[in-house]
């Protein structure tokens, strides 16, 4: 039998201030399956709201999954 030693390392996650956030929505309206229409990345919440409003106007769909996406940086910390 061999002995094994495991070392753990702490990691920190911080927001990448050099990257702009993106906003995205996907239409999840549907009985049997979601519509699936995707806004793709939008530059701000106003543009995302406009896309959702236009999709609702054109299709009558009213339910979306929406998220603000931010970029993060992972920094390796000390070994424990």
Q: Can you tag this structure with a few keywords?
A:
single chain, 80 residues, alpha+beta, 1 helix, elongated
Task: Please characterize this protein's 3D structure.
By secondary structure, the chain is of the alpha+beta class. It has one domain. The protein has one helix and four strands; from the N terminus they run ββαββ. The strands form two sheets. A two-stranded antiparallel ribbon has the order 1-4. A two-stranded antiparallel ribbon has the order 2-3.
Q: Count of helical segments? A: 1
Structurally, how many domains make up the residues?
1
Anisotropy-based shape: elongated
Radius of gyration: 21 Å
Helix content: 10-25%
Unreliable spans: none
**Strand arrangement in the largest pleated sheet:** 1-4
Task: Summarize the model shown.
By secondary structure, the chain is of the alpha+beta class.
List the helices and strands and how they pair.
Blueprint: E1 9-15, E2 22-27, H1 45-59, E3 64-69, E4 72-79
Antiparallel strand pairs: 1-4, 2-3
């Amino acid at each position: 039998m061999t002995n094994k030693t495991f070392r753990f390392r702490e990691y920190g996650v911080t927001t990448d201030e050099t990257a702009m956030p993106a906003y995205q929505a996907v239409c999840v309206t549907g009985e049997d399956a979601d519509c699936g229409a995707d806004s793709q990345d939008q530059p701000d919440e106003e543009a995302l709201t406009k896309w959702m409003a236009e999709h609702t106007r054109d299709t009558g769909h009213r339910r979306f999954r929406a998220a603000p996406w931010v970029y993060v940086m992972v920094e390796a910390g000390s070994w424990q």
